[in-house]
UniProtKB/TrEMBL annotation:
Residues 5-145 form the Lactate/malate dehydrogenase N-terminal domain. PANTHER family: MALATE DEHYDROGENASE (PTHR23382). One of its GO terms (molecular function) is L-malate dehydrogenase (NAD+) activity. Substrate binds at R92, R98, N131, R162. HAMAP family: Malate_dehydrog_2 (MF_01517). This is Malate dehydrogenase. Keywords: NAD, Oxidoreductase, Tricarboxylic acid cycle. It comes from Deinococcus sonorensis KR-87. Its EC number is 1.1.1.37.
Length: 328
């Protein structure tokens, strides 16, 4: 058994928190040999509800759960954290785009970035889930100048998983037969779920489906799935979001299987002409806790225009948070 690691989770009494914490504590995120200490951050009025969640965590008697800290102080929550999952933020309501949350939520991520910079492990891995996730990750990153920019990531894994599931249903093949799926860009309706590299049982996906299904059904269904869930449930996705967060962190910590890749929102290094510094969804492989962008993919004109459109939206979001004084 390894020594315990510290996992900070913000918004821990919220909807996503309620699905996420139990899976982290069960070992689903970091494996069966890795004990965890949960460091849970909430706003002061939610601490009572958080205490109820802690009682339930205790009642599960998870063998890997080595301790729980609850607090409304980011300096306590992020102290020595090895992993930080920034979930706490307002969800959107029907009729809103995720970017509409910038003014409400952006302000949360500056002080949290500063606190992570001050007290977290120097090797902390940060995942931002709270929307708009890519630009909130940029805010946290820009306020943590003593850490490496690549330690800050945003979640596009839910979109990746949605894309796998839609393609699986269309082709009648299991999700496990699908490789090389990519979500490029923003976790928003401009995202580009790209099938041009994807294979199903080794066959090109685009040889198995019509171009019209790809363009008119697949892409919009994946890109607008969050809104469809809000419409159906009256609340935004929670269990599937928590599951994607587990997948993102597990693959970042433990690596991606040989021959496959996943999608992560990471700081662009200029690959594929994406403006440097934007937190953008890329295809990545992971080894030894380090992710690498998959290089050398052919980019068609169709892909190029979609990749540019979602980069443009992220550039506009970055300009907006600059104006709010949240990044330089
Ligand atoms: P929720 O309202 O149920 O829970 C959010 C929790 O965050 C609340 O308990 C709230 O008290 C807490 N919180 C607010 N400000 C905080 C702060 N400064 N510090 C600590 N905690 C704080 O919402 P939810 O359904 O759990 O969703 C959380 C966020 O995740 C939303 O922004 C939602 O849009 C986003 N989300 C992202 C994805 C994705 O794929 N990236 C998927 C689903 C949801
Ligand atoms: C999702 O994709 O389900 C989340 O980002 C919630 C939302 O606002 O759509």
């Amino acid at each position: 058994m390894n020594n315990p690691v510290r996992v900070a989770v913000t918004g821990a009494a919220g909807q996503i928190g309620y699905s996420l914490l139990f899976r982290i504590a069960s070992g689903a995120m970091l494996g069966p040999d890795q004990p965890v200490i949960l460091q849970l951050l909430e706003v002061t009025p939610a601490l009572k509800a958080l205490n109820g969640v802690v009682m339930e965590l205790q009642d599960c008697a998870f063998p890997l759960l080595a301790g729980i800290v609850t607090t409304d102080d980011p300096m306590v929550a992020f102290k020595d954290a090895d992993y930080a999952l920034l979930v706490g933020a307002m969800p959107r309501k029907a009729g809103m785009e995720r970017g509409d949350l910038l003014s409400a939520n952006g302000g949360i991520f500056k002080p949290q970035g500063e606190a992570i910079n001050a007290v977290a492990s120097r090797d902390v891995k940060v995942l931002v889930v709270g929307n708009p996730a890519n630009t909130n990750a940029l805010i946290a990153q820009q306020n943590a100048p003593d850490l490496r920019p690549e330690q800050f990531t945003a979640m596009v894994r839910l979109d990746h998983n949605r894309a796998l599931s839609q393609l699986s249903a269309k082709t009648g093949k299991p999700v496990s037969s699908i490789q090389r799926m990519t979500i490029w860009g923003n976790h928003s309706s401009t995202q580009y779920p790209d099938l041009s590299q994807t294979t199903v049982d080794g066959q090109p996906a685009l040889s198995l489906v019509d171009q019209s299904w790809y363009e008119q059904e697949f892409i919009p269904t994946v890109a607008k799935r969050g809104a469809a869930i809000i419409e159906a449930r009256g609340a935004s996705s929670a269990a599937s979001a928590a599951s994607a967060a587990i997948d993102h962190m597990r693959d970042w910590a433990l690596g991606t299987p040989e021959g496959s890749w996943v999608s992560m929102g990471i700081p662009s290094d200029g690959s594929y002409g994406v403006p440097e510094g934007l937190i953008y969804g890329f295809p990545v492989t992971v080894e030894g806790g380090q992710y690498r962008i998959v290089q050398g993919l052919e980019i068609s004109d169709f892909s190029r225009s979609r990749m540019d459109a979602t980069a443009q939206e992220l550039t506009e979001e970055r300009d907006a948070v600059r104006e709010l004084g949240l990044v330089k």
